[in-house]
Design brief:
Largest interface: A-B, 23 and 18 residues
Number of strands of chain A: 17
Order of helices and strands of chain B: HHHHHHHHHHEEEEEEEEEHHEHHH
Number of helices of chain A: 24
Helix content of chain A: 25-40%
Largest sheet of chain B: 8 strands, mixed
Oligomer: heterodimer
Shape of chain B: globular
Radius of gyration of chain A: 30 Å
Radius of gyration of chain B: 27 Å
Strand content of chain B: 5-15%
Number of helices of chain B: 15
Largest sheet of chain A: 8 strands, mixed
């Protein structure tokens, strides 16, 4: 009961919106930092175990077990296949990601799990596969002298080699509660620990901003004077609370939830949502941001109206069993019920808060598809009644378009357009170009024009289809046909670069079109059979006997950066005019490596309804086709013979009315004069 | 015409009348809701060109000009004698804490800038709309000492000097010939320089307002308003109240003189107007371009410090702090104010508010207003525990001798404030409600500026149990008092 009462008190805080919480978070009970063996970390000096520390009150086992952020789809037995064949799961760990290229393959060694955690663990909250193997054994219990396994080994210095990883020494990456529940988690310190392979210390390092721990001579030390006599930390120093938007932004995208200060948030693979769509979650007016947006003086709208109105991510993507927000997924909720009938008591929720969060139904959100539609959709909060009164055929529009189609009329940031892994830049990274910007989007001086997302038919959960805004990102890479997987990055680098870090002579010879002895960025493209063959030859030398180029299109749904009503699309001609957006093609790539036309990933929730075309200058275009999408656009799609019939019908009706009316008037006056004559006579 | 046709005609006429009535009603309804501030702007009569007058006249001083004015405008002269601009005080008003109504104004009040007019007339009355106010013997019934030119000169060459008299090099004839409706240059000559210099006193009035961009003031920048568009005078009584010299809201002006109460398209914003003054959101910062004085410590005056920046230190005045783009402080304000009057007792250890807004969260007529709060440290009598009025100007004054004791003794017979011979310095505050430097709606505050984790409002200090976004407003929280004073 005591526990429940404590939970009840705390839950009251958790149910409050974040701003209010900030002022009362000191009410969170003092916390004793506990190490993995249950000892007081202050005494033992060992890393903090969040599972033990937070688990003293909360059921951290339940939380970790109900969190797709923890498992990243590795616990999903059934998932929609992407069509790649080499993807082993729907999530970041095992699914090919154009941004990161490398992924964990549990069946053949390419990248060890520890390698993945060191490289990409920053974007994983910890727990799940970072703690235990698929059979439930702790990673620290795995034999380190076994044969090469992705779980127990990491890449060796030489490409194609491996070496064992000492999980006992590194520890595992526990689910990091601090990362999301502290207002100011030390992200950089945590990342440094992960990169260094000191996994056990990652959660401890996250506390660096609180002053509870300091790094001295490379070791983390606890600041004893910050602990009370009982060895506990007061909530004033460890202000745990409901996540703010910037906590989500640590992994997902550019978030600016602070005061109205100028900011510059360019695309970055560390901000994947912003990188892939240009979405920036900020309530700041665009004109007052530090982004060099074209015509920004006129852009008094905020980046995102919901952020402006102080909504936080969890308002729409809240815990699924939070009694304050509980809403059953549209996939399972009976149609006759508007609200679910069952929900947890407050104390129960605090003990076992599900960390499966409400989610939408985007193409890129491939994990936990069974939870699609569980987040708040526009119509869950907004009324249609009394709004959109100016819009003709409201029902027709609403049934054929998602709200974002008009309310995200444009993204005012750069977004990735093309990723080319068939060659690597001198920095050994993919060749990337962006839409919405001319020049380097990472340079604050570059003018950002922004872009209008393409509208594609999305397969809704109720079986209907509606137009939804998307950014289409094309990717090309080499596939090792023998092993059925992308060529591992070390081998690709080995094929392209000499030991001194420069391009191999054979590569320079193949790509150097102006014969100046070097390869410029402009020359780094496989636009001829000879160049493709040269790279294939180089790959063979690096041990990839049979490589071919694969191209794909990954759509990214755009659901944020919603404009306020006054800035939404209101010009009917944008869709219905002769110059409709459906008549305009969208550039998908500046060039097509190897001439390989990309194909759409199969686990997308949208479908292309149009043609992929090559322009005269070699660019890849997507030309939408409204008819093929199954929609008829009044105004845009006109049939001349219908117009002719319409015009003549109108003319004939007018003529008919005139003849009819004229005849009646004439006859009436004739009859009157006749009556008058008769009366006189 | 048969009965059938007659009926048809009646039906058509009735239909047309019905349609017209509906249209008119709809338009009336639409107009009622629409914010059409331009329809409420005053129309100004065309001013008579005076350039052909005054032929053969030569004006030796200001009163000579006024006498010429009064030949045609005697009635206006009489009107002006009863205005605050002439009297430097208003009609008697009940000042909280005092038994009898008191006529207060610049003439008899203390502030925490140059402290008081009394005993310092020649300098302070530079900005009096009159001539020759040297001392307590100024004749307020003499219309020939009205300074018509300071408000009506359009030559651009008119200036005022000590005691309000124009310097000898001012071309008075040219000024007289140029007269017209007051422009920004006329009002701003004094009001933009309140406190003895540009941008010193008000926070929302400074010389950038002569020709502001819309970023400084949307009314004057984008719409090219002059001061008299809003401060439209009748009988030379110019409406508008300054809380520094008045305690009531008689003859005040407000945004709703032109704008409707709830002009926003957004319902949520309109709901704010019950508790939030327009200025609160639409003046996100004051001192937009020029820094304004925020702090004045008289106690450091008189030292020979190696500081030449007069925005930091002056030997005659002490140490200052100026700030630009200042985020206002926010307080409840119902249009009334408290006022420290000469001789009121103080707690020298505390902070004395020389004026402060009245109203609180329970007052349904009060709204949250933005204020510049000017903080000072000024001289008081240790024995009598009231603020002293030192003589700073003129022979023997502090600005000449740097002797506080002498300055206080010299002022004693003039001010009537007994001086014990022991003085100290005590902290004071003055509240300046902000109404100018109105930002464009594109620059008005957004939700997060006030609400949420990073909001600028101190909700607890305003009386809320927490952010009203989360807890509800004062009406939902039952914090409002009914008219009878009982809590609802």
């Amino acid at each position: 009961m005591k526990l429940l009462r404590a939970f009840s008190g705390c839950l009251g805080l958790m149910l409050l919106p974040a701003p209010a919480l900030a002022s009362v978070s000191a009410l969170h009970p003092p916390v004793e930092l506990i190490d993995i063996d249950g000892g007081a970390a202050l005494t033992t000096g060992r890393p903090v175990s969040t599972m033990r520390t937070c688990g003293a009150c909360h059921d951290t086992g339940y939380i970790a077990g109900h969190s797709y952020h923890v498992w990243l789809g590795t616990n999903e037995e059934k998932f929609t296949p992407s069509g790649r064949g080499f993807d082993h799961g729907p999530g970041l760990l095992e699914r090919f990601d154009p941004l990161t290229y490398e992924r964990f393959d549990p069946e053949q060694f390419d990248l060890g799990l520890a390698d993945w955690l060191r490289r990409f663990g920053t974007h994983h909250v910890g727990g799940g596969f970072a703690v235990q193997s698929a059979d439930g054994r702790s990673l620290m219990e795995l034999p380190s002298n076994a044969s090469t396994s992705p779980l127990t080994h990491v890449r060796g210095v030489e490409p194609g080699t491996s070496e064992p990883w000492d999980w006992q020494s590194s520890g595992v990456v526990e689910m990091n509660c601090f990362l999301c529940h502290l207002p100011d988690p030390a992200v950089d310190e945590r990342s440094a620990e992960l990169r260094a392979g000191r996994f056990a210390w990652a959660a401890t390092a996250t506390l660096a901003e609180t002053g509870l721990v300091t790094r001295e001579a490379g070791q983390w030390q606890y600041a004893a004077d910050h602990f009370d006599a009982d060895g506990k930390v007061p909530a004033t120093l460890l202000p745990l609370r409901k996540p703010a938007s910037h906590n989500c932004g640590i992994c997902h995208g550019a978030v600016q939830d602070g005061p109205d200060e100028p900011f510059f948030l360019p695309p970055s693979v560390d901000r994947p949502m912003t990188e892939t769509t240009g979405e920036i979650i900020a309530g700041t007016r665009i004109r007052r941001s530090g982004m060099n947006v074209a015509g920004k003086e006129e852009l008094s709208r905020p980046w995102d109206v919901h952020a402006e109105r102080l909504l936080v991510c969890s308002d729409c993507h809240g815990s699924l069993n939070n009694p304050a927000f509980f809403a059953e997924s549209r996939q399972t909720q009976p149609t006759h019920l508007k609200h679910p009938t069952g929900r947890l008591a407050i104390g129960e929720f605090l003990k076992t808060p599900s960390h499966d969060f409400g989610k939408g139904h985007s193409s890129q959100a491939t994990v936990a598809r069974d939870l699609d539609g569980s987040g708040r959709d526009c119509v869950d909060c907004h009324r249609l009644e009394g709004t959109h009164t100016w819009l003709p055929s409201v029902e027709r529009h609403m049934s054929s378009m998602r709200c974002e189609a008009c309310h995200v009329p444009r993204l005012y940031a750069a977004a990735r357009r093309q990723t080319d892994w068939t060659l690597l830049s001198p920095e050994r990274e993919a060749l990337v170009n962006y839409r919405g910007v001319k020049g380097d989007p990472h340079d604050p001086r570059t003018l950002v024009a922004g872009y209008q997302p393409v509208l594609l038919q999305r397969n809704e959960l109720d079986g209907s289809t509606r137009l939804a805004p998307q950014n289409l990102v094309t990717t090309w890479y080499w596939l090792d046909r023998q092993r059925g997987r992308p060529v591992p990055l070390p081998q690709l680098q080995q094929a392209l670069f000499a030991a001194d870090g420069s391009y191999r002579r054979s590569i320079v010879q193949a790509l150097d079109e102006n014969h100046d002895g070097s390869v410029t960025i402009e020359e780094l493209r496989l636009d001829s059979d000879a160049k493709v063959a040269a790279i294939q030859q180089a790959l063979q030398s690096a041990g990839v006997a049979d490589a071919e180029i694969r191209g794909e299109i990954q759509p990214y749904g755009v659901h944020h950066d919603v404009a306020p009503g006054v800035a939404a699309l209101r010009d009917c001609r944008v869709c219905h005019g002769g110059d409709s957006r459906f008549s305009r093609s969208t550039v998908l790539a500046d060039y097509v490596p190897g001439g390989v036309m990309p194909v759409m990933v199969q686990d997308a929730t949208v479908r292309l309804a149009g043609d992929l075309l090559l322009s005269d200058d070699g660019r890849l275009l997507y030309q939408p086709n409204a008819t093929r999408a199954g929609i008829y656009l009044l105004g845009y799609e006109s049939f001349p013979w219908v117009d002719v019939i319409g015009r003549w019908s109108l003319i004939l009706v007018v003529i008919g009315v005139l003849i009819h009316g004229g005849t009646r008037v004439f006859l009436a006056s004739f009859a009157d004069s006749k009556k008058e004559t008769e009366v006189r006579s | 015409m048969g009965a059938k046709h007659s009926l048809l005609l009646v039906a058509v006429v009735l239909s047309v009348l019905g349609a017209i009535t509906a249209l008119v009603r709809f338009q009336g309804f639409a107009q009622e809701r629409r914010d059409d501030p331009f329809s409420r702007l005053p129309s100004h009569v065309a001013h008579v060109d005076h350039s052909r007058f005054f032929a053969g006249l030569e004006f030796v001083d200001g009163p000579a000009v006024t006498r010429a004015c009064l030949e045609c405008h005697a009635e206006q002269g009489e009107e002006f004698l009863h205005t605050a601009h002439w009297q430097w005080h208003g009609t008697p008003a009940q000042v909280p804490g005092h038994d009898q109504p008191v006529a207060i104004g610049k003439k008899n009040l203390l502030n925490n800038f140059c402290i008081s007019v009394e005993s310092n007339w020649p300098k302070c009355t530079t900005c009096h709309a009159g001539y020759d106010w040297h001392d307590q013997n100024f004749d307020f019934d003499d219309p020939t000492h009205i300074d018509c030119l300071v408000c009506h000169d359009q030559s651009g060459g008119y200036r005022k000097g000590r005691a309000g008299n124009p310097p000898a090099d001012v071309d008075l004839l040219a000024a007289a010939k140029s007269v017209g409706l007051p422009e920004r240059t006329n009002c701003g000559y004094c009001h933009f320089n309140g406190g003895g210099g540009d941008a010193v006193k008000h926070g929302d009035l400074d010389q950038t307002m002569f020709f502001p961009s819309e970023e400084i003031d949307v009314h004057m920048g984008r719409l090219d308003f002059s001061c008299v568009e809003c401060h439209h005078a009748e009988n030379h009584k110019i409406p508008g109240r300054s809380m520094s010299v008045s305690v009531d809201d008689v003859a005040g002006i407000g945004c709703t003189d032109c704008h409707v109460e709830a002009p926003h398209e957004n319902e949520r914003l309109n709901a704010h107007v019950a508790a939030v003054a327009c200025q609160t959101c639409h003046i996100p910062e004051f001192a937009v371009r020029e820094a304004t004085k925020m702090h004045w410590d008289w106690s450091e005056a008189g030292q020979d410090l190696p500081i030449t920046d007069h925005h930091v230190y002056m030997k005659i005045k002490g140490r200052f702090r100026y700030e630009r783009n200042v985020v206002p402080e926010y307080y409840w304000y119902n249009g009334l104010a408290n006022r420290y009057l000469k001789g009121d007792k103080i707690d020298p250890e505390g902070v004395t508010a020389l004026n402060s807004p009245r109203g609180d969260i329970a007052d349904p007529t009060a709204k949250i207003w933005p204020f510049k709060v000017h903080r000072g440290n000024q001289i008081y009598d240790k024995k009598y525990k009231y603020f002293l009025v030192p003589n700073t100007v003129g022979p023997g004054g502090y600005w000449t001798e740097f002797d506080w004791d002498r300055a206080c003794r010299q002022a004693e017979p003039i001010t009537g404030l007994k001086y014990s011979g022991e003085y100290g310095f005590a902290r004071t505050e003055m509240y300046w409600p902000q109404s100018h430097m109105v930002a464009t709606k594109e620059e008005a505050l957004q939700c997060a500026d006030c609400h949420g984790e990073h909001g600028r409002m101190d909700w607890a200090a305003l009386g809320y149990p927490g952010d009203p976004r989360d807890r509800g407003g004062r009406r939902q929280l039952d914090l409002l008092h009914s008219e009878g004073g009982e809590a609802q």
